[in-house]
Amino acid sequence: MHKKNGITNANYTVGTAEQVFHSWQDEGYKPDIVVVDPPRTGLETGLLRSILQVKPKQLVYVSCNPSTLARDLAQLEKRYRIRYLQPVDMFPMTAQVECVVKLTLKSNPKKK
């Protein structure tokens, strides 16, 4: 569809994030930017590990659960710096909140 619309500088991949990342690792593909929007359970452990290994320059994490977001960010902060975090009240008058977080790869991550 993107070629039909004249877009030549982008690639689109369809599949679960876990499937896509495993195939990217096998192929040696390294995306510049990755956007994840996991379920309330947060990122699957294998996917989180894959993101840390593939090391995209930027990561956008959309979360519907502050607890699992905090858990995943604790792992991601080893290699990434939080540049922006925006809560979004999509369901007023409820306790539910979405958060959009932009992370960038650290130039010299410290070992923890």
From TrEMBL:
Species for this entry: Listeria aquatica FSL S10-1188
Record keywords: Methyltransferase, S-adenosyl-L-methionine, Transferase
Cited Gene3D superfamilies: Vaccinia Virus protein VP39 (3.40.50.150)
The protein's name in its UniProt record: RNA methyltransferase
Active site (catalytic residues): C64
GO annotation, biological process: rRNA base methylation
Binding site for S-adenosyl-L-methionine: D37
One Pfam family, short name: tRNA_U5-meth_tr
Molecular function GO terms recorded: rRNA (uridine-C5-)-methyltransferase activity
Annotated TM spans: none
UniProt family annotation: Belongs to the class I-like SAM-binding methyltransferase superfamily. RNA M5U methyltransferase family.
